[in-house]
Amino acid sequence: MGHRTALISYSARILGSRDAAEDIVQEAYLRFGLGNSPAQTARQGLAYLYRIVRNLSLDTVKRRRIEQRAQNEDPPFWIVPRTNETPEQTTMFCDEVRIAQEVLASLTQDIQIAVEMHRHGGCTLEAVAEYLGISVATAHRHVRTAMVKIAIALDRKNA
After folding, report:
1. Which residues belong to any copy of the RNA polymerase sigma factor 70 region 4 type domain (predicted)?
2. Nearest to 147 by CA among 111, 122, 117
3. Which domains does the chain have, with CATH numbers?
């Protein structure tokens, strides 16, 4: 615990947030305690602790970038409400919605829930992950998988 302040400063430089750094250091101490063997010297233990803090901090930064990228994307056209001007456009749109529904129905329930919560409900990937009991990366993968499969199915229809 004597190196806590230095570890927080180290993590804060990577994360840009002292509050987040404190959480990372707490997690690092927990992981360090689980994997620490009595044969390690104090110097090796400190180096290992710094490595844990660094890896957790970099993982957090990477996760934030992925989520930011996902949130900044324009939603697919088939999610955005729109007015249809002609009966032909209405028919085409209904056909595209049906295709999207069929693709979603063919996916696992977890993927369906992740898409509904994130894309339609506006939930963050963290909230989706917590609800489903999965990691944030897996929640992102679920949403991305569904979006890609829907896009491929719609491209096939339009080809």
Report:
1. 100-149
2. 111
3. 4-72 (no CATH), 87-158 (1.10.10.10)
